[in-house]
From TrEMBL:
InterPro entries: Acyl_CoA_acyltransferase, GNAT_dom, Ribosomal_N-acetyltransferase. GO terms for cellular component: cytoplasm. It comes from the Bacteria. SUPFAM superfamilies: Acyl-CoA N-acyltransferases (Nat). Residues 43-188 form the N-acetyltransferase domain. Keywords: Transferase. The keyword Transferase applies. GO terms for molecular function: protein N-terminal-serine acetyltransferase activity; protein-N-terminal-alanine acetyltransferase activity. Coiled coil: none annotated. This is GNAT family N-acetyltransferase.
Length: 215
């Protein structure tokens, strides 16, 4: 019996014109960890609400491994985090996550992602997010997708605007002992359809639906 028989998420694939997104195999997860060690963003800023990159390179790599393993081990249909590796021509360029709590009732997902620093400014972040939004709205019939970025994170906010998100309020956070404003964003199916950026193909989803809390 194959792994997919027990863990159908291993067979889920999202493809865009340039990327394939899927759960990483051990070698791909190791490549993702190495990419994190090389650097994810300008060290002068901290774009994440969890400052996991403010550590030494080897600690960043280890945290990537542990985070993926933890999400796999703690998966429940009522509370899940799907973290897909993004590959371009077989090369790991980053990771795109989508998650939800009580999705069968709330029908709301949240997303998060990062790219290796050498893969920035190529439009890949938009394509990655477009892939999981297609999964959410076309595949899982979500009613809302939410995201957020600090007010000075123009790249992330730009991706959200391009994909049709609207403002959903603010939050006050502390980043490196300084006050920071997080802008919340929300997307509906109608806004998503109006701002689709790239064609997306999905494979292996039907077998995964019970794992997302759906019949």
């Amino acid at each position: 019996m194959s792994l997919i028989s027990h863990w159908p998420l291993a067979g889920l694939r999202l493809t865009t014109p340039r990327l394939e997104l899927r759960l990483p195999n051990p070698d791909e997860l190791a490549a993702l960890a190495s990419l994190a060690a090389e650097g994810v963003h300008d060290p002068a800023v901290q774009p994440f609400t969890v400052a996991w990159t403010d550590v030494a390179p080897e600690q960043r790599a280890r945290s990537v491994l542990q985070y993926h393993w933890r999400c796999w081990g703690e998966w429940q249909p009522e509370n899940w985090e799907l973290n897909l590796v993004a590959l371009q021509d077989g090369v790991v360029v980053g990771t795109q996550g989508i998650g939800a709590r009580d999705f069968a009732i709330r029908r709301e997902v949240h997303t998060g992602s990062w790219l290796g620093r050498r893969h920035h400014r190529r439009g890949l972040g938009t394509e990655m997010r477009a892939a999981v939004l297609h999964l959410a709205f076309a595949g899982l019939s979500a009613r809302h997708a939410v995201s957020g970025a600090y007010a000075d994170n123009t790249a992330s906010l730009g991706v959200s605007r391009k994909l049709g998100y609207r403002d959903d309020g603010i939050e006050h956070h502390v980043v490196r002992a300084e006050s920071a404003v997080l802008r919340r964003l929300r997307l509906t199916p109608e806004q998503w359809r109006e701002h689709r950026q790239a064609p997306v193909k999905t494979a292996g989803l039907q077998e995964c639906l019970p794992w997302f809390g759906l019949d």
